[in-house]
Amino acid sequence: MFSKRVISLFAFRSIVLLVLLGILCLVMVEQFNLFLIKAANPFIPVRITLRTFGTYIEISSAGPSATSPLYVNSLTIYSGTILMITVALSAVGLRLSERLISLGVLTTLGLVIQVVGIILLSEGIEAASDINYSGFSESRQFNVFSVGWSLVPAIISAAWCYLFWRRSKSPIINSLN
Q: Which end of the chain is more exposed for a tag (fewer CB within 10 A), N or C?
């Protein structure tokens, strides 16, 4: 079991990292959005267009019964990845190599989640604006998007914690107890 000191150190690191990563995200949001749009574009339906609009990503349809564009807040998009990275970087008792590997893996998983989320939203908008759409049913994409956006980063973080923190007998953690 972890001592109060280890838990306090983790909590302090987490708060500091959340603030710093949030500021970094705000400063670099347009570049992150452009990268996300470029990664998702090959998988987006033909009638859907993506563009960055300040701190939002605009998803618009040119279908027969096109609706008004959907604006997705970028901080919502990146929040799961920021939380996963925070958990990995603020963990107590990890070596630098373990932190760097975790950072790479979790950042990659976060990007995959974001691209899949944008694709699901685009498919949902395409389904809602086209009567002859042959993909998923209209609401399935939105349901998968909302569940995935909130649960997948939490599940990945929990799996990471299990894999790396189950070694609570490590010398670094024991020296802090």
A: N
